[in-house]
Amino acid sequence: MPPHVADLDLRLVRYFTVVAEHRHFGRAAAELVIAQPSLSRQVRRLEQQLGARLFDRTPQGTSLTAAGEVFLPRARALLKSAAQAAAATKAAAQPSKITIGYTPGLIITPAVRQLRRQHPDADVQTLHLDWNEPRAALLDHRVDAAVTRLPLATDGLHVTILYDEPRLLMVPADHRLAGKESVTLDDIADEPIPKMPDPAWNAYWRIDPRPDGTPAPDGPLVAAIEDKNELVAAGQAVAIIPGGLHGIQLRPDLLTIPLEGVAPSHVVLATRFGDRSRLVAAFSKSARDCLTGRNGETTT
Q: Which of 107, 111, 205, 235 would bridge with 290, disulfide CB 3.0–4.6 Å?
């Protein structure tokens, strides 16, 4: 009779994944700092629990059986899920620490200072995140709250809109539009705009398609904000950016111009859905108090 999931020994599952990674019992035993015969016995115990042989052992080395190939991704997912469950439980049991993430151009200092004043016993840490990191950082428990911008995949998260930012056009200092008081999408109808490796981000920050249904002109693919800035400064593209980046990390060879006729972007506070930590609740209030001065609109 197949075992229940609860019957699996996670220590044995981890041993299996290490052997599968090395394809060699000796090297796996060295990494795990256990004797090779003991490791072999532990893997056989796991095979007995599963009712399936996981490895083919030969003098040339070790290879996964068909059953092993099927079990490997599930074993890794099981170990990851267990680690996340342990982290979440520890966070709930020890709510004296919080790590707050924030993305480029966003200032969270007033809210963090208020939280520290109100909870002097708490260990309040901050962590700078790349533009595309907040969701993964929250779900992996690297941060407990994140101040970032939409668009953001919200499944598994609780998201509160804190405030709006105007969207600006960033151009090189010698661009034909430099010096204008404002511009519209018609002014940049033929200007290439860099693409980022995220479809939702591209649609929002390239305004693609445009209101009339035409696609935004393609620019080079970049993965980092600094690379996008370099492309614009070199005259290869223009970019639409949030107003919060203006004056914070803008290079002297770049200028921004107000972009008229487009909706503002949204700065949000994101937390894990269902997180009942007192410090997460306290920071959420501090963010609403200090970063907006009013309650935000909430989505889930």
A: 111
